[in-house]
Amino acid sequence: MCFINITMNIGIVCYPTFGGSGVVATELGKALAQKGHKVHFISYSQPVRLDSFSENIFYHEVSVSNYPLFDYQPYELVLASKLVDVSIFENLDLLHVHYAIPHASAAYMAQQILASKGWRVPFITTLHGTDITLVGKDASFEPVITFAISQSNAITSVSESLKRDTYKHFGVRKPIHVIPNFICIEDYTKLRAKIGEQEIEKHKKYYAPNKEKIMIHISNFRRVKRLEDVLKVFEKVRKEVPVKLLLLGDGPERPNIERMCRELDVCNDVRLLGKVVNPDDYLLFSDLFLLPSETESFGLAALEAMASRVPVISSNTGGIPEVNLHGFSGFLSQVGDVEDMAKNAVFILNNPEILQKFRKQAFEQALTFDIHKILPMYEKLYDEVVKENATIETNK
Ligand code: GMT
User: Fold this and answer.
1) Topology given in CATH for the domain delimited by 9-182+371-394
2) Is the CB of 212 within 6 Å of ligand 1?
3) Which residues of the chain form CATH 3.40.50.2000?
4) Rounded to 5 degrees, what are φ and ψ at 105?
5) Residue 25 CA, ligand 1 centroid: distance in Å
6) pLDDT tens digits, 238-259
7) Considering the entire predicted model, what is its pTM?
8) pLDDT tens by residue, 317-359
9) Is the CB of 24 inside a 6 Å radius of any atom of ligand 1?
């Protein structure tokens, strides 16, 4: 299903951290490399998911200065310089930047510098969420972000909802291509087969020694994730169903959550496991995923849960309804409606047959986001952008 017959030299700019945009960018790059493209990751640190290298994968580190004059180091400038350098030295066909801030404006600056040297390198910006819905629309960023997004040779967003938000909050006139996030289903089925059901049950027993059900939440513990709601739902569910809660990830809300666990007297049933490199290992033995976010452009963590056959109880905000289907892969509630979320969680957890049905359906829904369906969309766009760039070049 590949649209490109020739392989390309692609520069991917992303955050190297646990955030969804970095994960999507890295997995995309790895998949493109497997198809024969040369992929150059450009970031200030090696992306966490870039755990395996192959002959087609390269990593270029942006070194941030620590000159004492600067209270704030000018990352965008060193990134732009790096993009110029890598574009020329590696003869890049295109740059694909993930998360608009500050990657889109750095790519624009690099493009201008490259043009002054006679090089034309197009760039694609993928909008991921908070770069639009929270940070980007703030007046302190908006003019630069609107400009940089509009100057992109192509724009993609990870959901229809984020596309609508972008048109609503920014003066962007260009078409926005919706290319949803993806997972590699094969990785999930292989992992399950590799570990085996017996071993999975053994791992589950470690956290749920008395056959309790396991609810799980994975995030960067930012306020937008509404971790307090996770605990409130859990506290209600545990009154009806024997259940444990696993919290994976870390971030600014952690102290608040630790305090709340004590206040609610649930510390014995809640495990805060911190930043885990392989969250899929924990999803394998979990029964229900919680995602009560305030805003969420997509909800990659929910999709990863579904790929692991874990149904999802979530809010109905942003792009989540495009991923989690109400009454099929899980349930959706209004943001903050912890009563409804708890009621739905008990409905699924209380009956083994219903749980089994939702597990099956969650997996079925995850199949629609398999990488084999999504990757050709990116390849088609790359092809169009590079061809258009070549046409401009020849017409000059
Ligand atoms: O806020 C986050 O969860 C991290 C952020 C990021 O840095 O990548 O996530 C956004 O991008 C993800 C990947 O496209 C989406 O799955 C998340 O829904 C989105 N987060 C929000 O919109 C809050």
Assistant:
1) Rossmann fold (3.40.50)
2) no
3) 9-182+371-394, 185-367
4) -70, -35
5) 12
6) 999 999 999 999 999 999 999 9
7) 0.93
8) 999 999 999 999 999 999 999 999 999 999 999 999 999 999 9
9) yes
